[in-house]
Amino acid sequence: MLDFFGMKTVPFTREIDTNQCFVSLSHKEAKARLEYTVKNRLVFLLTGEPGMGKTTIVRSLLHKLDTMHYRYEYICDSSLTPKLFYREILERFGVPCSTRPTEMKRQYRTLMLDMYEQDKKVPVIVLDEAHRFSETMLEEIRFLLNFKEDSMSPLALVLIGQTTLRNQLKVRHLEAIDQRIQVRFQMGALSEKETEEFIRHQEKISETPSDIFSGEAIQAIYNYTQGVPRKINTLASQALLDAYIQGEKIVGEAHVNRVINEL
User: Fold this and answer.
1) Which residues form a coiled coil (predicted)?
2) Domain residue limits at 247
3) Same domain for 163 and 197?
4) pTM for the complete prediction?
């Protein structure tokens, strides 16, 4: 298929270099807030519906952090518990982990403070799929941030989850955690114009010699996906395959509609 369309690489895949990711207005705003969070050792709540690119935007920025000044750890575990969290962090940082929960917490606090005060590095911890956390894990977040009688934080904490997480944190017994979140952002979908720019961007990075998707095809893709990047990738890649099977060099509205009917 690549030879047929004159492409160098496969477009519309999630296996893309972070330097080549399309940056929408929503992504720019999220990135600015994330940079501010990391620089000032704050707590950032990034939410959005599935497929909006929340994890991608965090990954694209944190992979560029100066390793001389930051240590970045990403955890994606919907069944994460406090005990599993402490064990995971301690093991990743090479600290022999105690079997006693209270000692594990002490080890974690010592590790974070030593890294910040002695090693002069800011730990950046990202917890993905946070909307699936149990209330016990959500409540534990308060203690992940409690250092020196709750007077400072040596680390930046990023919570990523679906929109429902915002409401989960509004219940009364989680108010203390909600109050500790200094930075928030809700990721939005691409606009109609951004959807076209996104598709053209994919054509460009795959080194396609000319535009493959017709304006009508892009309009049909936007109407169906409503600008959700993951849905755009799926529909566009399948429409591209359909055009290839039909032996046609341009992806038209008919190819998109045929895929929509199959979906």
Assistant:
1) none
2) 190-262
3) no
4) 0.91
